[in-house]
Specification:
This protein is α/β, with parallel strands linked by helices. The chain folds into 2 domains: about 130 residues, 2-Layer Sandwich (Nucleotidyltransferase, domain 5), CATH 3.30.420; about 170 residues, 2-Layer Sandwich (Nucleotidyltransferase, domain 5). The protein contains 11 helices and 17 strands. A 7-stranded mixed beta sheet has the order 8-9-7-6-13-15-14. A 5-stranded mixed beta sheet has the order 3-2-1-4-5, with helices on both faces. The protein starts with about 30 loop residues before the first strand and ends with a helix. Keywords: ATP-binding, Hydrolase, Nucleotide-binding. It comes from Sander lucioperca (Pike-perch).
Length: about 400
């Protein structure tokens, strides 16, 4: 997405970088990128303003953020209905970016798990509708501006974001940090292996190399579709990710409090969920069930214990529920903190004295998180850093994806 610099005398010519030497005396120049994150629950726009200095990696000067609900997938049966929301977000972009560089500012939409799970033709109609709006907009739109994001790219982009914000991406000598994300439908792990053996012994499609800021980065990355927390809940409760047959929406699970019952909505289906009869040891029975669901689904990452990792999304939310971290500031937890909390919660103890009534799924969620982390190769003594923002910038994949797109434009 590296586009035309911003000069007083901008000509509406081709979207090319001006010759390097002309910027030498012009002081810092700025450039913008527009990234739409079309998630399963909502559509979010990030408008990034980058400061470009010669030869240095770009600096993030400002971010404008706006979100609307519901997600694009809610309009699967009537794609035209998504138009109003997209136009509303494009207006936010117009008011944030100088008019003189609209035609050189790329606009990109990437859809995640919500659209990945739709039937192909429904997803295509939605994306075509958005593509037409982008083409009519005053911003720079190309054939690849609207797409469904591969889960692996989501992991790589989030890794780029985190390492850009910590400053580790700019310096070739500083070690990078790893990234763990636990969404509703999928979960990702990405890190840069330090040991050649990791690269040689990992499944071939888990190793990716890419160019960023004149450096080549090689990462171990994988997205496990269907192992996000909500999909995992369904599997642990005994449901399957297809629409249930009539009358089969009751789920009974050892992970719920004995004799309890309630309702839970997932993928537009309302399930009745019940605990088993009293007398079963809840933690042990739930642990067995979760281990069965995860059996041979996850590859252990050999260096996971040695690399510093940041963890996001539901890893963060559940640590907040337990009172392990402050909701606004985040913090550090050990894998053992999730394990110990799951034993406490499943045996009926309150997770923390300040807690409002807890979710009936907290036992299940914590057992799942603690087993998943250990299956991925994290020992109980391993610390994880939990953050929603780094240096006041949201740690989503959107920033990394914008850099990735910028780099691809630079090469065209």
């Amino acid at each position: 997405m590296f586009v035309k610099r911003h000069y007083a005398a901008t000509k509406p010519e081709a979207h090319r970088l001006p010759p390097r030497h002309r910027t030498a005396t012009a002081g810092p120049s700025f450039q913008y990128g527009i990234m739409f994150d079309a998630g399963s629950t909502g559509t979010r726009i990030h408008i990034f303003k980058f400061q470009i200095d010669n030869k240095e990696a770009p600096k993030l000067a400002h971010e404008t953020f706006r979100a609307i609900k519901p997600g694009l997938s809610a309009y699967a049966d009537d794609p035209q209905k998504c138009t109003a929301g997209i136009l509303e977000l494009l207006e936010v972009a117009k008011s944030s970016i100088p008019l003189s560089i609209w035609n050189a500012t790329p606009v990109v939409l990437k859809a995640t798990a919500g659209l990945r799970l739709l039937p192909g033709d429904k997803a295509k109609h939605l994306l075509d509708t958005v593509r037409a709006l982008f083409v009519e907009s005053p911003f720079l739109s190309r054939d690849d501006s609207v797409s469904i994001m591969d889960g692996t790219d989501e992991g790589i982009s989030a890794w780029i974001t985190v390492n850009f914000l910590t400053g580790d991406l700019h310096r070739s000598d500083s070690p990078t940090v790893g990234m763990l994300d636990l969404g509703g439908g999928s979960t990702q792990i990405t890190f840069s292996p330090q040991d050649e053996k990791t690269i040689q012994t990992s499944p071939i499609d888990y190793i990716r190399s890419f160019q960023m800021f004149n450096n080549t980065h090689t990462v171990y990355t994988h997205s496990y579709l269907g192992l996000g927390l909500m999909s995992a809940r369904l599997a642990v409760l005994g449901g399957v990710d297809a629409s249930p047959l009539e009358g089969s929406t009751e789920l009974v699970s050892p992970c719920l409090a004995p004799e309890s019952s309630g309702s839970w909505e997932h993928a537009d289906v309302v399930y009745t969920v019940r605990g088993q009869k009293a007398g079963e040891p809840v933690y042990e029975a739930c642990l067995t069930k979760v281990e069965k669901v995860l059996y041979r689904k996850v590859v252990k990452a050999s260096e996971a214990a040695d690399v510093d990792f940041y963890a996001f999304s539901y890893y963060y939310d559940r640590a907040v529920d337990l009172g392990l971290i402050e909701e606004k500031t985040g913090g550090t937890v050990l894998v053992a903190d999730y394990i110990d909390a799951s034993k406490r919660v499943c045996t009926g103890e309150s997770p923390s004295p300040l807690q409002s009534p807890q979710s009936p799924f907290l036992c299940l969620d914590l057992v799942y998180i603690s087993v998943l982390l250990q299956e991925l190769g994290f020992p109980p003594h391993k610390p994880l850093r939990l953050a929603r923002t780094i240096n006041q910038v949201e740690t989503s994949w959107a920033l990394g994806a914008s850099f990735h797109y910028l780099e691809s434009l630079k090469r065209h």
